[in-house]
Design goal:
Length: about 850
Amino acid sequence: MEWKFKRADYRRPPVQLEHMDVRLAFFEDRVEGTGRLHCRAREAVREVLLDCDGEKVPYALDREYAAGERFTVDVAHTCHPDDRRLEGIYRDVTPPGCPQQYMSQCQQYGFQRILPVIDDCTAKCTFRTALEGDARYTHLISNGDLVGDTTADGRRTVVYENRKPMAPYLFIACAGTWEVLADEVEYPDTHRRIRLEYLVPPGHLDGARVPMDILKRSILFQHELTGFEYPYETYRTICMEKSLYGGMENTGNTTIITEAALIDETISDARLVYAHGVIPHEFEHSHCGSGVTMETVFDMWLNEAYTVNVERAFLAREFGQAFARRLEIDALRETGGAFAEEEGGAASAVVREGVNDPDEVVDAITYDKAPEVLNTLRSLIGAEAYDAAWREYFRRFDGGNANTDDFLALFRETTGRDVAALMRPWLFDAGHPTVTAKWSWTDGTLAVELARDKDYVIPVPYALVKDGKDVASGTFVLDGPRQVFSTRCPKPDFISWNRGCGFYGVLVAEATEAELALQARTDPDGGNRAEAMRMLRDKGATETWLALYAEIFGEAARCAAGNGGDLGTCAALLSIPADSLDRRRRAFVRENVREMRALRAAAVHKIGVDKIADSLAGSCVPRDRATANAAAILRRAYENCLLQLLAAANVPEAWAAIRAYLARAANITARLNALRALVASDDPVRCETLATHGEELRRSLNGYIGYLGVVASDPHESVFASIAAEEAREGWSIEHPALSRALYCGFAANGDRLWTDEGLAWLEATIVKYAQVSEYNAIRLLAPLMNWKWFPEELRAAADALLERASAALPFDRYPFIGGKLRAMRG
Ligand SMILES: [Zn+2]
């Protein structure tokens, strides 16, 4: 594979940046910048290579400087921010009547679009930054402590000093109009206080109250978990409306997209959970990222994997381990998830050899696979050794940089294990292992046989279950192609394998229909009950599956009525997705949708529309407004299963039940779920009902996003006209990342219409159109095609032709990011 940037080519710059004086003046149409770079030569130099807008520009020095000598370089640049390239300084949505709102995004290489610089993660330097702008701005923000604030002739100048060396990718310079919710948090042991500020769009102060509480809990949780104490006076959270990412940790000044940063009655359950993740995530970067910084973009997994695991620990505490873990596993398996990327050949290893665009590392491999790989490491070396090694990592590299080799060497030194050998394929190979498991029991001896398809050392957790109870549990470590483990014990009913996805990869267990049915009923692990149910479906054991489904429907109803049990597990068991656990079978995309429709219809037939409608009517959650209440979220997930069944029933009494639920629903997720079910049915008033709700939903950003998702999910042929109408609606723009993604990615997930000729033509045209605006966003539309090589023949030919034409329209030299991805997918 050829790459524009190769890991092997990376050299530490010969000049160390030590300090920068920056001055930026914001005007309506431009930002004028000047800077002085204070440098120290690492070796003899006559010139400095500066990064400027993607180019390396030589800057001749007045003489040769020997290693250790210091000198300065003066730079100047005027940038003309636009609405599309959301890096460097760019134009964000401006509140009415206010001066132009400017936001910045410097990761990966945005700083060099503001001013020429040594744009390298090792260029950790101190900053003195003066920002000048219209005096009507409520805020001119940069990193560090405020040391000056003056106004003259309608222009305001604010000066910041950042005294702790920081990499340029963490720099922020923004100018805008916000209201502030201020608070503080006190560390219980040292009693040090951190001032907290939440900057929100005017009129949205109330939406910051819950997030502020989440932030305070996050800070104390993170301190308890990692021992870290935040080193600055103030921690600011800033709402931004336009961004490719959910958030960005600009040392001390985290930016978060408004739809996740504010929590009010317009936030959906999925966003609410996301908000509980992104807040601790970005704060953790004060520690892992700002404190210890990756050495290069190729080490970004080190920044992210640890951080994601802190975020996950917080989510597990807030919502419960089972709930949080289910979401993580779904993300790994979903269309466009890490497994699919690997199977499609489009994924790189966690530690990449090269990239065509540095933003490539912001993907499922870095954010979903890398944390799993760390968990696999923890299983292999033990939690205690693992935690001790990380503590030493943060102690040793604090204030500096670390790369993958540093990480591996330190883990070897502190654990005494050859962690580099143990982790080699997990980190340096693309792909994941598949383990097959079978067992037998004779004369009091249990023999388990495990086999792997690739040369990985794999921890495989198991539990032996008898009469609904775990009688033994542990972890087999598989370090050969095929191994047999035997032990003397009473005969178990079944083995509950790999609970909570204990290693990064796929486990395929041999089990009989009777064993799976028993497991779906009695496994103490809810996640594996749901897995057994799906395996039964994959086996084609429809009768058994239907009988179980009806049983679980009853269990769920009792549970919803408050008679014990786990409603989250019931919802997982009752949902009938269009995909399969069998990775190969997932590629039968048309057949899978048809099978899902048939199973839903069969389930309705078995249970009866009346009973489903009664269960929905008896559930009371629609009245709840958005709350961070896991129980309420799980109940809505359960109710959504009922709504989907009613949509499948598709008879007037089912439509009436959906409409009655919609009428009672105050919570936005409940409303959106009901609308989605209605739109999926043939209810004659479905379009006007959606139109009426749309009027109101579009008044808030989150409501608008949710509405667009419903429009795009419509399984009727009219969906194409509806999408075109939304594109033409005033207020919608392809340049608005959240609104365009909601509509386009919403349709990419519409299995009923995507796989038609018209749907595929739409996909192709939209990929090409969207890539002109944002390659990063357009790549999301490739997700459904990721495993196209496994498609049935006719569809495979269509996908092949589509990808070929898209590649021709998006040539690699002009579109290295999506062009490279297309090349990898076709390769
Ligand atoms: Zn991050």
